[in-house]
Specification:
Helices cover 48% and strands 22% of the residues. By secondary structure, it is an alpha+beta fold. Strands 6, 7, 8, 9 and 10 form a 5-stranded antiparallel beta sheet that branches. A 4-stranded antiparallel beta sheet has the order 1-2-4-3. Strands 5-11 form a two-stranded parallel ribbon.
Amino acid sequence: MIQTEVKKLGENEHEVEVRLPKSEYDRVYAEEKGKLATQVKLPGFRPGKTPGHVIEKQFGPKIHEDTVSQLLQQHYVAAIESSELTPALQPELSLPKVQPDDAFVFTLKVASWPEVSLTDLSKLSFDETEVSVDDKDIASVLERLYKSQVSYEVKEDRAAEKGDQLHLDFEGFIGDEAFDGGKGENVALVLGEGRFIPGFEDQLLGKKAGESCEVKVSFPDDYAAPNLAGKEARFETTVKSVGEATKAKDDETLAKMLNFDDAKAMMEDIRQGLEKEASKASKDTTRESALDALIAAHKMTFPEGLIAEDMKATTARVIQNMKQQGMDATDEMLQDDAFKAEVRTRSIRGLQLSVLLQNIRKDFDISLTDEEIDAGVDDMVLAYPENMRDDYAKYIRDNQEQMDGLKASMLEQKCIDYVVGQAKTKTVGKTLAAWQKEKDKAIT
């Protein structure tokens, strides 16, 4: 009943002419006219008794419009299926100004996904990275812990030095008037960290518990509160306590400060954390190498409309990520040519991978078993305290969006694992520190 003729306009762009028999148009037209006849009320005619020719004369354009709408709704999907095209975007519909006498015709401009035949995966070649943990990695973590873990011992007659922790009561004034937000009680301050207004901490050096003083400062010109920016202020301040910084001198003391039973337990926790990080680094780096090799082996182009749509979504994700980090995306940044080029590159890469991974799933019949999905849920909840894991696992399983996201991620990784298993790979080993150094260099 439906006939389609496909004309190629360009790469991945087609025009589909769709023809329906005139009898199909006439059938739907009669149905729409009949519906209208039961609804309208015209002078001189009882409801539902208005002659058809009167209805047609009065409402002909509307009946035609409703008929066209119904025909498109009823035959749109069949037209796309008959064309054997896979639209990447909503097809553009157009109607001829004059319909032929023997048919109803409409055309669809279709931007389609590229057709890609997978190359022999065994011909792919890339490095399979194995990141390992060595003693230097553990020593580096220990060094950071020694520097960051500090306790403070309050001493009655100690004159405050840089690195000491003070507890303060204070109230700020501009002239003789106290200002909002300028008062604090029992506020902890480590001298030298630079948390307060420039110059504030320096004036507390040498002070002892129980001493009061007047601290005079100037708010920076770019201070966040406009009513205070650039103004001189004084803070009436009382030092309530002075605590001397104490750092761990050995592993056992450090372990106790971190709430471990002993140094052995602390070291084991450090090693397990690093090994988990190294495992993820191995998988992520190999994943990117596999995806790069896949893309390089399969040339494809996409309709500009599809790229533009994906760039909108990519930009929205960038903006959302910036907001979560407390940053704002400025109009200047969004209009920057380099930013647009980066977004375009990301979008094209994402589209390429979507096509390739879908083909791998289909060609090699890759799917997830119930056991694999259960294991994926179990892995997700490991980040939560043990007594919360069952509840969170239930939440994930009851949440369709969460489960869909998990399955999509797992299926993608299973496809990548398949590629790695088929390709010619060379194992490259590196320590976690070396891997991190390379990563930091690539970012900068």
